[in-house]
Amino acid sequence: ELILAFESSCDETSVAVVENGNKILSNIIATQIKSHQRFGGVVPEVASRHHVEQITLVTDAALKEAGVTYTDLTAVAVTYGPGLVGALLIGVTAAKTIAYAHHLPLIPVNHMAGHIYAARFVKPLTYPLLALAVSGGHTELVYMKAAGEFEIIGDTRDDAAGEAYDKVGRILGIPYPAGKEVDRLAHLGHDTFHFPRAMDKEDNLDFSFSGLKSAVINTVHHADQIGETLSREDLAASFQAAVVDVLVHKTQKALTNYPVKQLIVAGGVAANQGLKEAMNEALAVHFPDVDVIVPPLRLTGDNGAMIGAAAHIELAKRHLASENLNADPGLSFAHA
Ligand code: ATP
Ligand code: MG
Ligand code: FE
C-alpha cells in the first residue's frame, strides 16, 4: 500500500509517500518560516501564496525521492482541517485533482490525528493509549480506546503551549517560531522567577498558559521600567519549568485516571528537550510500565508523512472523501 499524503494547514508545504502507514519513502517539507518571520507570526495570505507556488514542486520531489509514479499509488491523503482555510484549500485541491485524474481513493485526514499517528513511525501502537498533543494551536490530552477513536480528556482554556512559547520568545527578542531557541536558552539558565503553574493543583485535566505568558511579559516590562536587565536564560528556564511542570503533572493525572501502556507526546512542542527529559524521568518513577513515545524531530513539526500514517488507519476503515471534500478550518476530533 502506497499513500501520497499532503499537508498544507499552516506554514509548511509537505508531501510524503508512505508505505503501509509506517514506512517513509519520502517526506519533503518546504517551510515558509523566513517569509513570516518579519511579521512575527504566520500571515494567512502569505501562507496560501507560498503553498500555491510550492505544491507542485514538492509533490514532484516526493514522488521522485520515493522512486514511484502516480500509477504505483494506492490512495491520496490530505489534511482538511484544522488550520488556516486558505492554506488547507491548496492541499485539498491538489489532492482532489490527483485522486480524480488517477482514479485513486481520497482520504481526508485530521491534522491533529496526523501529529499523534507520527508515533507509528517509531513503533506499533497498542490501545488504549494516551496522547499529549502539544503544538502551535493545540494543547490536548487525548484518550484513544482504539485506532481512530479520539476522546479529548483535557484541553487548554486559552493559549496553546506552542503559542505561549512563541509569544514569550517575542518578548525575549527571538524570531518566530521561538520554541526551539527558548528551549536552548532554558538549558543555560535556572528557574529563578518561579512563575505561576496555572491549574496545576485543580482536579481536572485542563491547561491554561495565558497567565504564565502575561507573568513573563510583565516581569520583563517592569524590569525595563526600572532600568534593570534580566537574564534571558533565567527567564526562559523559569518559563519552561512552569510549562513543563504543568504538562507533566496533568499527564500523570491523566495516566492515573486512564491506565494505558503507551503515552505519545505529539506536535511541534514535543521537540522540546526539557519536556522530553522531565516526562521520561517522572514516568520512569511513577509509571514504570508506561512507554513514552516521542517521534523524532523531523516528525514532530508539520509534515506529510504523519498524514500518510493517519491515512493508513482511515483507509482500513474505508473512511473516504468524495470529490466534494472541502477544507474545514475548525475541524475537531469528533470528526477525525
Ligand atoms: P497545530 O498543529 O496546532 O495546528 P501548528 O501546526 O502551527 O499548530 P506545529 O507545527 O505542530 O504547530 O508546532 C509548531 C510549534 O512548535 C511552534 O509554536 C513552535 O514554537 C513550537 N516548537 C518547536 N520546537 C519547539 C521546542 N523545542 N520547544 C518548544 N516549542 C517548540
Ligand atoms: Mg509550522
Ligand atoms: Fe501542526
Automatic annotation (TrEMBL):
It is an enzyme of class 2 (transferase). It catalyses: L-threonylcarbamoyladenylate + adenosine(37) in tRNA = N(6)-L-threonylcarbamoyladenosine(37) in tRNA + AMP + H(+). Pfam families: TsaD. Signal peptide: none annotated. Fe cation binds at H111, H115, D302. Residues 23-308 form the Gcp-like domain. GO terms for cellular component: cytoplasm. PROSITE patterns: GLYCOPROTEASE. Substrate binds at A133, V134, S135, G136, G137, D166, G179, D183, N272. Binds 1 Fe(2+) ion per subunit. Its EC number is 2.3.1.234. GO terms for biological process: tRNA threonylcarbamoyladenosine modification. It is found in: Cytoplasm. Required for the formation of a threonylcarbamoyl group on adenosine at position 37 (t(6)A37) in tRNAs that read codons beginning with adenine. Is involved in the transfer of the threonylcarbamoyl moiety of threonylcarbamoyl-AMP (TC-AMP) to the N6 group of A37, together with TsaE and TsaB. TsaD likely plays a direct catalytic role in this reaction. Belongs to the KAE1 / TsaD family. NCBIfam families: gcp_kae1 (TIGR00329), T6A_TsaD_YgjD (TIGR03723). This is tRNA N6-adenosine threonylcarbamoyltransferase. It comes from Lacticaseibacillus zeae subsp. silagei. The lineage of its organism: Bacteria, Bacillati, Bacillota, Bacilli, Lactobacillales. The gene is tsaD.
